[in-house]
Amino acid sequence: MSNILWTSEAAAAATGGRITKDWQASSVSIDTRTLAPGALFVALKDVRDGHDFVAQALEKGAAAALVNRIPEGVAEDAPLLIVEDVLAGLEALGAAARARTRAKVIGVTGSVGKTSTKEMLRAILGGQGKVHAAEKSYNNHWGVPLTLARMPADADYAVIEIGMNHPGEIAPLARLADLDAALVTIVAPAHLEAFENIEGIAREKASILEGLRPGGPAVLNADVPTADILFQAARAHGASIIGFGETGAQARLIEVLLQEGMTIAKARMTGPDGKSHPVMFKLQSPGRHFAMNGLGALAAATAVGADLAIAAHDLALWKPYEGRGAREVISFDIVDETARFELIDDSYNANPASVGAALATLAASEPRGRRIAILGDMLELGPQEADLHAALADLPAMEAVDVVHCVGERMQALYESLPKAQQGLCCDTSAKMAERVRTVVAPGDIVLIKGSLGIRLARVVDAVRKLGQSVAE
């Protein structure tokens, strides 16, 4: 087997587990639906117990399974690594993978933009070495160790996304990742059900610095109202602070030009020589927030040794993907080029800051028809949720939106705060909106779909796509 990631001997040494027979694995998987032959299957317990799928995993060609017992229906001489606790075993694999690699590891957290920034860093660093990063938003208590356990020993760079829902989640994951650099994209109202205020969220985001190696670079958003909390934490940890933003930062955004399908940004960045250097970069998606994320990514990349000129050039390779601001043109009539509309799929997540950024992108677009927003509930906002939803009506970008369609009980507060001329449909479920989207889109329109994952706007996205045929630009 080529590209061996784990041998049974190395995995047993890392976890303290017992092997039933020798094996070699080329990857690590937690899902039999996507498992590739040669993978080590990790039998995690979540909604379902992974032990129930071990036999299936081995039948599909798994090299071995990480378990805490021999599952029913699995032979005693099957290739297994038996540990006391499967999640702890996965964490031990992640720690061992981190210890054996030469990679410069960058940790990314923030209320908004973690995944986009992670993918920007993948694009930036890909031209300067071998980069390892999760294909999805694997940023929680099992996602981070899984990402680390999958890291090849010969990686040059690794980008680890670290998220949270409750206090105390980020620090242990950051310590496990043993970071060479840490990046905080933004601090904004999100998960307020679990935090008393925005300051509490800032302190939790700042706890990523507990995993930063001594003297390592902390790349921090200098424009957020809670920047002082971030900077104080960085000083307390002895980090080398790199601020990025529009005012008084080492990485300073000077000008942002939004064009159809593109963002062009000018900035100045202080290099390793202590001098300020001009830099221009382009992104293949319009959005001022994307420019800010790109600036933070450039600062983090250069802080671990990447060449700024190459990094700025390669940032243009990044594109947002499905559910994260991906754009596509859909045609009602493939022959008639005027019978088209544009879809912005930002349906994966939402909080006030990210909705505001998405609306600003919509407002900057220049459709032949209307600017339409289909907005779903923002979840986990706590007692302030009604006010936070209603406040979206007062955003400057909202003035440029022609029609707003609302999905979910919480979005009723926004609907009632909008002028009558802007009020579109108001449905309590995404299923009901999906049934009615054919009545709300016309040729020339640009349609933004944005909401928290739990409101399931992906089904609305799917319904909109089915109105026509996607056109490759």
From TrEMBL:
<dbReference type="InterPro" id="IPR035911">
    <property type="entry name" value="MurE/MurF_N"/>
</dbReference>
<comment type="function">
    <text>Involved in cell wall formation. Catalyzes the final step in the synthesis of UDP-N-acetylmuramoyl-pentapeptide, the precursor of murein.</text>
</comment>
<feature type="binding site">
    <location>
        <begin position="110"/>
        <end position="116"/>
    </location>
    <ligand>
        <name>ATP</name>
    </ligand>
</feature>
<dbReference type="GO" id="GO:0005524">
    <property type="term" value="F:ATP binding"/>
</dbReference>
<dbReference type="InterPro" id="IPR051046">
    <property type="entry name" value="MurCDEF_CellWall_CoF430Synth"/>
</dbReference>
<dbReference type="InterPro" id="IPR005863">
    <property type="entry name" value="UDP-N-AcMur_synth"/>
</dbReference>
<keyword id="KW-0132">Cell division</keyword>
<dbReference type="Pfam" id="PF08245">
    <property type="entry name" value="Mur_ligase_M"/>
</dbReference>
<dbReference type="Pfam" id="PF01225">
    <property type="entry name" value="Mur_ligase"/>
</dbReference>
<keyword id="KW-0067">ATP-binding</keyword>
<keyword id="KW-0131">Cell cycle</keyword>
<comment type="similarity">
    <text>Belongs to the MurCDEF family. MurF subfamily.</text>
</comment>
<protein>
    <recommendedName>
        <fullName>UDP-N-acetylmuramoyl-tripeptide--D-alanyl-D-alanine ligase</fullName>
        <ecNumber>6.3.2.10</ecNumber>
    </recommendedName>
</protein>
<comment type="pathway">
    <text>Cell wall biogenesis; peptidoglycan biosynthesis.</text>
</comment>
<dbReference type="GO" id="GO:0051301">
    <property type="term" value="P:cell division"/>
</dbReference>
<dbReference type="Pfam" id="PF02875">
    <property type="entry name" value="Mur_ligase_C"/>
</dbReference>
<keyword id="KW-0436">Ligase</keyword>
<dbReference type="InterPro" id="IPR004101">
    <property type="entry name" value="Mur_ligase_C"/>
</dbReference>
<feature type="domain" description="Mur ligase C-terminal">
    <location>
        <begin position="332"/>
        <end position="452"/>
    </location>
</feature>
<dbReference type="GO" id="GO:0008766">
    <property type="term" value="F:UDP-N-acetylmuramoylalanyl-D-glutamyl-2,6-diaminopimelate-D-alanyl-D-alanine ligase activity"/>
</dbReference>
<dbReference type="GO" id="GO:0071555">
    <property type="term" value="P:cell wall organization"/>
</dbReference>
<dbReference type="InterPro" id="IPR013221">
    <property type="entry name" value="Mur_ligase_cen"/>
</dbReference>
<keyword id="KW-0547">Nucleotide-binding</keyword>
<keyword id="KW-0961">Cell wall biogenesis/degradation</keyword>
<dbReference type="GO" id="GO:0009252">
    <property type="term" value="P:peptidoglycan biosynthetic process"/>
</dbReference>
<keyword id="KW-0573">Peptidoglycan synthesis</keyword>
<feature type="domain" description="Mur ligase central">
    <location>
        <begin position="108"/>
        <end position="301"/>
    </location>
</feature>
<dbReference type="InterPro" id="IPR036615">
    <property type="entry name" value="Mur_ligase_C_dom_sf"/>
</dbReference>
<dbReference type="GO" id="GO:0047480">
    <property type="term" value="F:UDP-N-acetylmuramoyl-tripeptide-D-alanyl-D-alanine ligase activity"/>
</dbReference>
<keyword id="KW-0963">Cytoplasm</keyword>
<dbReference type="GO" id="GO:0005737">
    <property type="term" value="C:cytoplasm"/>
</dbReference>
<keyword id="KW-0133">Cell shape</keyword>
<feature type="domain" description="Mur ligase N-terminal catalytic">
    <location>
        <begin position="27"/>
        <end position="83"/>
    </location>
</feature>
<dbReference type="InterPro" id="IPR000713">
    <property type="entry name" value="Mur_ligase_N"/>
</dbReference>
<dbReference type="InterPro" id="IPR036565">
    <property type="entry name" value="Mur-like_cat_sf"/>
</dbReference>
<dbReference type="GO" id="GO:0008360">
    <property type="term" value="P:regulation of cell shape"/>
</dbReference>
